[in-house]
Amino acid sequence: MYNKSLIALAVTACISLTGCKTTDSTQQEASQTFPTVVETTTHQGPETITLKQAMAHPDWLGRQPERAFWSLDSNAVHYSRKQAGNELRDTFTKSLSGEGNGQLVSLDKLHTLGAKQLTFSQDNKWVAYTFKGNIFALEQSSGQLKQLTLSDDSASQLQFLTSGELSYRVKDSFYKVNVESGMRQQIVALKAADKPKGVAEPSSYIAKEQHKLIDFVALTHKNSKDKESYNQRLTEQNNSIMNDTYYLGKGNRIVSAVLSPAGDKLITVISESKPWRDDGDIMPNYIGQNGEIVAEKVRRRVADTKPSGSELILINLEENTHTTLPFNTLPGFDEDVLADVKAENAKAEGKTYKSQKAPRHINLMMDWGWSQSAIQWNQSGSQVAVMLEAFDNKDRWIATVDFKQNTLVSQHRLHDKAWVNYTYNNFGWLNQQDDTLYYLSEESGYSHIYTKPLKGKAKQLTKGQFVVSELTQARNSQSIFYKANKKHPGIYEIYKLDLTTGESSAQTDLNGMTDYQLSPDESKLLLTHSKLALPPELYVSDVDGEKVTRLTNTVSEKFLNTQLIAPKVVAVPSSNTEQPIYAKVYYPRDYKEGETGQARKAVIFNHGAGYLQNSHLGWSGYFREFMFHSFLAEQGYVVMDMDYRASKGYGRDWRTAIYRHMGKPEIEDLADGVNWMAENANVNKERVGTYGGSYGGFMTFMALLTRPELFQAGAALRPVSDWAYYNNPYTSNILNHPDVDPIAYKRSSPIYFAEGLEKPLLINAPMVDDNVFFQDVVRLVQRFIELEKENYETAIYPVEPHGFKQPSSWLDEYRRIYKLFEQNL
Prior knowledge:
Layout: E1 23-24, H1 26-29, E2 37-38, E3 47-48, H2 51-54, E4 66-70, E5 76-82, E6 89-95, E7 103-104, E8 119-120, E9 126-131, E10 134-139, E11 144-147, E12 155-160, E13 166-170, E14 173-177, E15 184-191, H3 205-213, H4 215-237, E16 245-247, E17 252-259, E18 265-272, E19 282-285, E20 294-297, E21 310-316, E22 321-324, H5 339-348, E23 362-364, E24 375-377, E25 384-390, E26 395-402, E27 407-415, E28 427-429, E29 436-441, E30 448-453, E31 459-460, E32 468-473, E33 479-488, E34 491-498, E35 504-506, E36 513-518, E37 524-531, E38 534-542, E39 548-550, H6 557-560, E40 562-563, E41 568-572, E42 581-586, E43 600-606, H7 623-634, E44 638-642, H8 652-656, H9 665-680, E45 683-693, H10 695-706, E46 713-717, H11 728-735, H12 742-748, E47 761-766, H13 774-786, E48 792-797, H14 807-824
Parallel strand pairs: 3-40, 15-16, 43-44, 43-45, 45-46, 46-47, 47-48
Antiparallel strand pairs: 1-35, 2-41, 4-5, 5-6, 6-7, 8-9, 9-10, 10-11, 12-13, 13-14, 14-15, 17-18, 18-21, 19-20, 21-22, 23-25, 24-25, 25-26, 26-27, 28-29, 29-30, 30-31, 32-33, 33-34, 34-35, 36-37, 37-38, 38-39, 41-42, 42-44
């Protein structure tokens, strides 16, 4: 039987669950040496993995904990778990001691559990949260729980004001409620409309004469004016009537709005209201519920996206004014940051480009992983910080507001000649320090923590060749908790930064992938931890403590009894960079290090998303591929899964290596992978195939079309063939926009290299994919037809979106991939 204890990893001497805690100064952090190979333990169960089992519904793995969060008293945790056989979730409560996976929570008690996002009053008396849009507040000393709203209007943006009242937002209106009495008051209403005009005076000749000649008309007009004047005096003089409505202009939309904790000011962001798609942006669904072809609405393409900017508005509720805060005080607000790119493209067309300064389109920063706002007030409400980004993706600013001059004051500018990262943008104010900001920045080459006083220089608090993310500032101490891959690029642990000393201390030593939540009383950490061959489970540890306790055990016996080959994580030397290319390598069970004789066949898997890390030591989102690779290894294949350049977790330069030329650096890395396997794993270079989905499908295209000597066969799943057809938020970062930089799109899109197809190609395409459109495959197939190519085939999946849902579709897809490799390698 397989040992159910955690799979140990031979990474360092400190691999036990109790760990060996370390304290790092920033000087110590600055230097890392990583093991070249990380060994892992292989499943030793009696059951061999089959292709059908690998592609089965993931229920068979055991239905792992989801959406876990702390109880309000920090003595238990709550989590969701999928029901067997359907997509519904149950909620469980698990105490920090005791056996089993916890107790099922009845539906009538769910509102009493609290939530992951909690809001504390400044005196720590109350903690508030929402459940299904309604607001609840717990008095911490007595344990009394109050329901403050009962409505189908969903409340959000909970915040305790300096007055002790709780503010919240419903649609575009802000309210405050006295938690003790339950008295509710509307603070302000925002409307994206023009301010209603008062009773109009007659303006035309005919109208003026009508008022002179007809007494009834004049009297009706007078009565209307009297009523208008009376209502105005009433709202001004009677405090029981709400009169703070701000009109932000017809044709606009409210992007964001955040109220000051003092309740006296509001920062809001508006932009021109534009449709997110055009009438022609549709996707045919051939197998709809009613038997008809359904034209599903989809997003527009990057090629159709037009520049857009926003307007930042300060609303002073006490003075009843609202003022636009111009962007012209931001350094570089009018720079022609793409001058070199525009000049290169103009030259290619036989033209000359003349650079000119002009205001850039600037918007509120939208980080892909945020739960926070890009508008952050300090605790007293005396100052606000906003994070802004340029539409061209080259700048990120953090700015505060000079309330006397109604201008923005730049506190930090992050400029990147490629593009500013769409993650690692956490920022805010230090608790109990109304004049000091903290933020993440990649300016050193890696995401690190900085602090900056409003009148002073920024200070870098973490340093080294590792990535910092997921900041949590402790309310009751001068500490920031964070996640980082200090020990190894593929190992993520939790650390605590002491803001008074600048030192970081390790909070976990689990050697895998670890995420965390700080308990409400800030004494413990709830950990979601996984190993490379073991799905995520919940654990708990004390802050600064040694002991880690496992709370759940949901992995199924069937999975534990399945024989799987876990990969080693290796550092493949790069021909193009000083950094190695980290990769998972699955060796056949009978492989012996240094073996000679008949060389083996091999496959390289290309992960999706581009900016994603898969060669880490935790459970992968590609769990089916993990089992498929184990299956291939059982058949004698060596399988490699590379974190090629562009992948997450390795710093800014690794991320931006593909700027303006996707599909070149990544394929160079695949070539290094092929050579490494030939030299170190007894692989025949003439028997190597490749496959991948989404971005990995794009890479398969580029490998076979631009480097046909590299692989003998390839499978492209849900692949991008023309980046001009993909979405704007992702593509414009890497390739700019097609109207500005057509060179980048043409040298990065497989459809322009279709004539290079020489080796067998399998294209698997879902037809209701609203991410990478089926159109990508259709256009490239037509190109192959016109080029009279023969060595490709296409499999379509009529009911599947980008991420397949049906086990039968997964099985069909991977049977075809396996057949492709068996026939050609």
